[in-house]
Amino acid sequence: MSIQETETPLHWNFLLALEDDIATLSRFIEPTTGNFDAYSLELARMLFAASSEVDVVAKQLCAQIDSQKRAKCINDYREIITAKIPKFYQTEVLYPRFGLRMKPWLNWESDKNPLWWRAYNDVKHERNVHFPKANLQNTLNSVAALYVLLLFFYESDAEQGKLSPNPSLLQVGEPFILDSVFWSRERTIVYKFDNFR
């Protein structure tokens, strides 16, 4: 008997692990707008994990888009990504299980950084002052932001229905169009990027 291994999408698996953390957290804090200001060490850990992964993936996505430009910070990411994908910031993310919709990159429309990104940096650098910003709202937005980035980072796989397994809590909304592979036993999501071109 032999064991075969294929390359797995490392960043996608990281997102799915964060999603599992949110599912576990939801047993203790209901993800609802009434609890958005709730903060904790666990939420800080998740905010750090998601936001630092956003930093890593955004830098790689920028290199894919334009290898000649150096992307060193979120302002560079915004310039490079929105030049190639002007509707990027319009991408909506849903947490259907909790009835939540958000646009985690919407601040890029006005050339500003997302609030969750500012919260991440504030908590990282001055936790003694800004610890309450490690809250549910910023954490959910940072995970949603990572999801959006990964769809573009893994665009080819996403278009072919090869991003597997599917997220269990997250769902992308407009301007994306979703389809599924008809021959698959499991519902395999195919992401259509037509509205971004």
Question: What is this structure's SSE topology?
Answer:
Blueprint: H1 10-25, H2 41-65, H3 74-84, E1 93-95, E2 100-102, H4 115-125, H5 127-130, H6 136-153, H7 155-159, E3 171-172, E4 177-180, E5 189-192
Antiparallel strand pairs: 1-2, 1-3, 4-5
Helix pairs in contact: 1-2, 1-6, 2-3, 2-4, 2-6, 4-6
Explained architecture:
The chain is mainly alpha-helical and 197 residues long. It has 7 helices and 5 strands; from the N terminus they run αααββααααβββ. A 3-stranded antiparallel beta sheet has the order 2-1-3, covered by helices on one side. It has a two-stranded antiparallel sheet with strand order 4-5. Helix 1 (10-25) packs antiparallel against helix 2 and helix 4 crosses helix 6 (136-153). It is globular and about 50 Å long. The N and C termini lie far apart (46 Å).
Question: What are the main properties of this structure?
Answer:
single chain; 197 residues; mainly alpha; 3-stranded antiparallel β-sheet; two-stranded antiparallel sheet; 7 helices
Strand order of the largest sheet: 2-1-3
User: How many beta-strand elements?
Assistant: 5
Oligomerization state of this entry? single chain
Element pattern in H and E? HHHEEHHHHEEE
Count of DSSP helices? 7
Distance between the termini: 46 Å
Largest sheet, in brief, is: 3 strands, antiparallel
In short:
The chain is mainly α. The protein is built from seven helices and five strands, in the order αααββααααβββ. The mean pLDDT is 93.
